Amino acid sequence: MLKALFLTMLTLALVKSQDTEETITYTICYPFVLRLGLFSFKFCMPNNSWLKDKIITISEYPAVETRSPLILAAMCKQCTDGYEWDPVRQQCKDIDECDIVPDACKGGMKCVNHYGGYLCLPKTAQIIVNNEQPQQETQPAEGTSGATTGVVAASSMATSGVLPGGGFVASAAAVAGPEMQTGRNNFVIRRNPADPQRIPSNPSHRIQCAAGYEQSEHNVCQDIDECTAGTHNCRADQVCINLRGSFACQCPPGYQKRGEQCVDIDECTIPPYCHQRCVNTPGSFYCQCSPGFQLAANNYTCVDINECDASNQCAQQCYNILGSFICQCNQGYELSSDRLNCEDIDECRTSSYLCQYQCVNEPGKFSCMCPQGYQVVRSRTCQDINECETTNECREDEMCWNYHGGFRCYPRNPCQDPYILTPENRCVCPVSNAMCRELPQSIVYKYMSIRSDRSVPSDIFQIQATTIYANTINTFRIKSGNENGEFYLRQTSPVSAMLVLVKSLSGPREHIVDLEMLTVSSIGTFRTSSVLRLTIIVGPFSF
After folding, report:
1. Residue 308: CB partners within 8 Å, gap ≥ 6?
2. What angle do CA 96, 98, 100 make, to 5 degrees?
3. Measured between alpha carbons, how far is 325 from 318 in angstroms, rounded to an integer?
4. Residue 344: what pLDDT?
5. Contacts with 204 (C-beta within 8 Å, 6 or more apart), sequence order
6. Residue 511 and residue 447 in contact, taking contact as beta carbons nearer than 8 Å
7. pLDDT at 18
8. What pLDDT was estimated at residue 265?
9. β-strands 527-538, 442-450 pairing
């Protein structure tokens, strides 16, 4: 029996309309519940053009019971297409496709929302809602022009006088006129030129709107904005959100509902909001960065500040590091206690071995100086200047002798009477002179220079016989100039001896030491002596 009933309904639906009048129809789907005994079946019946004059009504088919989408949704808390569940009102509410579907209608048509769908109508069309039971089509009144106002006639599927989802109905007497031709539960648009400002023939007729809606000046039910009108009951710490036919109370951004109150959300406890530090504020938060960092353009990432470029506080050298910077000084300087400025290092105080003679501190460096008679070599050591090779004040009958730190002029002929100068630069006392019998036969003048405070014992001068006689014995001694015992003469061979410095000498000072060599015949036939007069000049310094 169920199968036969479905076939019957499909057969009725497939019968095409014989109405030749040009119309535009739009599909609106209404849910139905088919009850057969203990079983019930839900399906949608669209009012497409093929259902014109063939809409199945309750009177024609008592076994078919119509239910609005709200009632069906309440039964299973699921909404049919074109509706969405309203958790506040606990029912399905219509989706306004004209709001959410971009460019819903093409070709200059206007979008008209309908419960469960939407219509694309000519801009000159007017909407009239018919709440009467389906009637046979009536012909237009005599004398009425065929060029009438474009009208959409809609038959209500609800006998309660209210369209599903909070729509509206109006009586046929209030909206029907000679220009309108009604069908049976279908929408018909007459594409006739009309005045777009035309309103129904009885504009003062009151229509009944669902809760949350009110009648507009065009006799349509429009949503009441309770938030703007101030008719809501939201708390002072809540925000009113207008809904279609209702409103909702929500907490402002940055707050969450706890009981009946809105409490601040501590965004800083929900990582990762900020890169480094988060500061919570009522309803919001902001990010902070550690010293040495700054907020990026996204206001939560921290980027390093290059202090060396932005505000270089270093006196000399600046090196940027992550989150900070360090200062360094040039050679010869050191960081002060503030770690920014540089102070000169007094290298001369740090060590006494930097310079051989004298250290002179300069900004960032030092230099070495030498005393008069010396010159600086290799930046730190002092070297004697040989004035005898450069410039001196000695006369022509004098010879220049350079020593460590200076020079001296000595006579070219040092011989004193009765000695005479020989070509070998020796002073010889002639044998024929009676005065020479008790004097050394010859005197040789020699000069030498030593540094002050020379380490001892130290070999400083060697004496050697220039003439060697057979069967003779040579002995050496310090004849004069060693009163303080600074020297010692050590014989190294039968014909030579070495002068040894046994006490340290400090200059500047001049020592004249006579070194005598006695020559005695082994058979005792003669005895002679020779003197080497050594002038030792001790320099003023140890270099």
Report:
1. 314, 318, 319, 320, 325
2. 75
3. 7
4. 94
5. none
6. no
7. 34
8. 92
9. parallel
Give SS3 for 212: coil
CA distances from 87 to 119, 224, 247, 368 (A): 27, 19, 11, 95
Evaluate whether 176 touches 128 at the Cβ level (below 8 Å): yes
**Residue 172: closest CA among 124, 136, 144, 143:** 136
Residue 219: its pLDDT value, please?
85
The CB-side HSE value for 179 (13 A sphere, CA atoms) comes to 23
The residue whose two tokens read 């910077």 is 325
pLDDT of residue 322: 93
CA dist 455 and 402 (Å) reads 21
Backbone angles phi, psi at 402, to 5 degrees: -90, 140
Q: What digits encode the pLDDT tens for the residues 42-68?
A: 444 444 333 333 333 333 333 334 344
Residue 473 burial class via C-beta count within 10 angstroms: exposed 0-12, middle 13-18, buried 19 and up: exposed
Output the CA torsion sign for 318, 319, 325, 330.
Answer: negative
- Positive or negative, the CA dihedral 318, 321, 325, 326 is negative
Rg (CA), the chain: 66
Q: Give residues with Cβ within 8 angstroms of 234, minimum separation 6.
A: 240, 247, 249
Provide CB contacts within 8 A for 528, sequence distance 6+. Answer: 441, 518, 519
Query: Which pLDDT does position 204 carry in this prediction?
Result: 54
Integer angstrom CA distances of residue 158 from 127, 133, 134, 173: 18, 10, 12, 18
SS3 161: coil
Q: Do 174 and 205 form a contact (C-beta atoms < 8 A)?
A: yes
**Below-50 pLDDT ranges, the chain:** 1-76, 130-201, 203
How many CA atoms lie less than 13 Å away from 254 in the CB half-sphere?
10
For residue 151, what pLDDT is reported?
Answer: 38
CB 495 within 8 A of CB 532: no
pLDDT given at position 150: 38
CA nearest 127: which of 57, 188, 215, 194?
Answer: 188
Q: Could you identify the residue written with the tokens 């050496």? A: 476
pLDDT for the residue 403: 93
Question: Bridge partners of 41?
Answer: 34
Find the helix or strand (DSSP H, E) in which 73 lies. helix 69-76
From the CB of residue 537, how many other CB atoms can be counted at a distance below 10 Å?
21
- What are the backbone angles phi and psi of residue 64, rounded to the nearest 5°? -100, 120
